[in-house]
Design brief:
With about 400 residues, this protein is α/β, with parallel strands linked by helices. About 35% of the residues lie in helices and about 15% in strands. Helix 1 crosses helix 2, helix 9 packs parallel to helix 11 and helix 12 packs parallel to helix 13.
Length: about 400
């Protein structure tokens, strides 16, 4: 197991990896829950008298979201309630000079680490530890803290290179996310375990179901994956119409696994009995029995919502991966929002995973405190559920 901030001591020069990757709208970086979550780690280190140097990424080269972290420094400062200095350099002379001039209790944010050529290649930790990026910065620090759980499924230099050459610790986000997201595999619950699975990435959901097997008592399926399972059951849904491009290629990739899962776990898989669609600008619903798909179905129907709520109310633990529908359109938010509301009102251990699904909590005024944990991770959450490798976590544990 990794060491945490409880083990780090005081007054050290600390390099902290955060995940501040955020939406960018017309060049303006948007505040989100990642800043508030990581602020706890940064604030705790500052109050411990450490010299706190933060690094993070934003976007990928070639995309509109690939911008400087200068705005991020101001947003982070608001959440930490302390000034955050910024230097437009990752590991060159300006960055090193800024690190050396930092005083105890001060905070510095380096430039977007993906502007450094050594960062992005997926390489073994041993190779990253020998990169110019790591070799330039590591001698300036006493310790490394990784708080970027949401990027833990990547084997990038800033995530796996530094733990090989510095005393390394998990930040509070890393610690809490890892504990919550692996609990389905590592904890025993006094009652049924339910998984609510939806969203557009059906392949991820199918992989999760295939990996968990006996850990889950009931699977409640909606979104694209719900339709694909209905297709496997013989209903006339689960394929692309009206210009969509999300069903057919995922069906081709997962048909065999879906059909096998339905056979192996027939009594544990609950599928939608009705679906919602748009007619003359309004929400309408239809039963899946006898339906012919000539339009998209952007939500589950209310009969399904009520049936799923009944299962949730009897659950000791509920894990969520993916939305029940296109909740960004208020007409088709009922499935996602009402299921989340039922989870929040049930006395159970609950984890809501994935950035898109957790965004519905904020968008529709639900209380995050009603859930045991709301994850800010996407790919890392899926990896945790499926038992797949998390290179950044493994590097901390070595």
């Amino acid at each position: 197991m990794f060491k945490t901030l409880d083990d780090i001591g005081t007054g050290k020069r600390v390099l902290v990896r955060l995940d501040l990757n955020s939406p960018v709208e017309e060049g303006v970086v948007q505040d989100n829950r990642r800043f508030s979550r990581h602020a706890r780690t940064v604030r705790e280190l500052r109050e411990g008298g450490h010299h706190v140097v933060c690094m993070a990424h934003q976007g990928r080269p070639g995309r509109d979201s690939f911008v400087s972290l200068e705005q991020h420094a101001d947003i982070l400062a608001d959440h930490v309630d302390h000034p955050v200095q910024f230097v437009d350099d990752v590991c060159g002379e300006r960055a090193v000079d800024a690190v050396r001039s930092l005083e105890s209790g001060e905070i510095l944010l380096l430039e977007n680490v993906r502007m450094c050529g050594d960062e992005l290649p997926e390489r073994p930790p041993e190779e990253h530890a020998e990169s110019e990026f790591v070799r330039a910065l590591a001698p300036e620090f006493d310790a490394y803290v990784n708080d970027a759980y949401s990027a833990a499924h990547r084997s990038h230099a800033s995530l796996v290179g530094f733990p090989l050459v510095l005393d390394s610790y998990a930040g509070r986000v890393m610690e809490r996310e890892y504990e919550a997201n692996t609990s389905i595999a590592n904890r025993e619950f006094d009652g049924p375990v339910t998984m609510v699975l939806g969203g557009a990435k059906a392949t991820d959901v199918v992989d999760v179901m295939d990996a968990l097997d006996q850990k889950v008592d009931t699977y409640l399926l909606g979104g694209v994956v719900g339709e694909l399972f209905l297709r496997a059951e013989g209903y006339d849904v689960g394929y692309d119409v009206g210009g969509t491009d999300v069903f057919d290629y995922q069906w081709e990739r997962n048909e065999g696994t879906i059909e096998r899962l339905l056979i192996e776990r027939e009594e544990r898989v609950r599928l939608p009995s009705d679906l919602a669609y748009e007619a003359d600008g309004e929400r309408e619903e239809c039963q899946v029995e006898g339906v012919e798909k000539d339009r998209p179905f952007p939500d589950i129907g209310h009969d399904t919502i009520e049936a799923f709520q009944s299962v949730i109310e009897e659950s000791a633990a509920v894990f969520v991966k993916g939305a029940m529908g296109v909740f960004e359109d208020e007409r088709f938010s009922d499935g996602t929002v009402e299921i989340l509301r039922a989870i929040g009102e049930t006395d159970c251990f609950s984890v809501v995973g994935g950035g898109d699904t957790s965004r519905a909590i904020t968008l529709y005024g639900l209380d995050e405190d009603d859930f045991s944990h709301v994850s800010i991770a996407g790919g890392a959450y899926v990896n945790a559920l499926t038992g797949s490798e998390l290179p950044a976590v493994e590097a901390l544990c070595d």
